[in-house]
Amino acid sequence: MYRRIDKKMKKENILLVLFPYFHTSIHPYLKKLLILFLLIIFSSVGNLFADYKRIISLAPSATESLYELGLDENVIANTVYCSDGSSKKEKIGTVTEPNIEKIVSLKPDLIIATKEGNYKTVIDKLIRLKLTVYVMEPYSSFEDVCTNFQQLADYLDKSDIAKEIITDIKKEVSNLNTEEKKSNREKIFWEVGANPIFTVGKQSFVNEYNKFINGTNVFEDIDMRYPNISVESVIEKNPDIIMLVNMGDVSDQEILKWNKYKNISAVKNNKIFLLEADDIFTPTPKKFLNGIKVLRNKLEINYRGLEVNE
After folding, report:
1. What are phi and psi of 75, to 5 degrees?
2. Rounded-to-integer distance, Cα 106 and Cα 92, Å
3. How many angstroms separate the CA atoms of 159 and 153, rounded?
4. pLDDT tens digits along 243-253
5. Is the link from the previous residue into 20 a cis peptide, with omega within 30 of 0?
6. How confident is residue 92, by pLDDT bands cut at 50, 70 and 90?
7. N or C: which end of the chain has fewer CB within 10 A?
8. CA nearest 42: which of 30, 32, 34?
9. pTM of this structure
10. Domains recognised in the chain with CATH numbers
């Protein structure tokens, strides 16, 4: 049996929790050595005693994860692509080019970065500057999204909140799964970059959306997250649906560009959709569920001319 260690406990008092006979007869010198040793051990655990009040997020997915965990007021700054939440946040640049000088000047007690979006060189520089950085792992599936969310919550002492969210979201997501309907699946081309063209490969969590809209990714055979492809390869794949994710250089102009290729099934049948990146490319449990609903909504409007009630 053990007792939960409260963050606000003094470290010396925790010794009494872990070692109930610590206060009994022991040589003062040995006691000091033992305290020093245990404090070193506790420090290596990372955030066991931390209570972060000045968090900076370096990616939209990190920002939304923090908001979903109820830490909106603890976030003091984020990127220009992130939402502000309930209060205005300082902006520290983009995901790929954050302003290091400004980050340092804001005196954060924690920075949340992602391997998915932030460069390793940036993360390494922040660490060299003695800043505390938590790095979220890449996402290749909905399960990864949930796992990363839970791990972040565990680090921030929000485990119970995350477990409840994940349980509820998984229940809703499983009810929407159409994976068993394998016949008549429509071929989907996802465009996430225009100049040059980038798409969704096998390693991206975006592939998970396909099972909820009875589709298959035409470039799922490429073992990368976001590979660079050509117009010719898209024409060859002849997708039934084109999903344009509004990320920087992907805009409604891309619809006009693809409409020039009259032999593509998606063009013939008017199945080209422009999607907001925030709806599709923000991997948190709640956002993933919302992404499914957005995609179904788009397709239902196209197929039946009616709005889906969410």
Report:
1. -85, 120
2. 10
3. 5
4. 999 876 677 78
5. no
6. very high
7. N
8. 34
9. 0.77
10. 11-44 (no CATH), 55-174 (3.40.50.1980), 180-304 (3.40.50.1980)
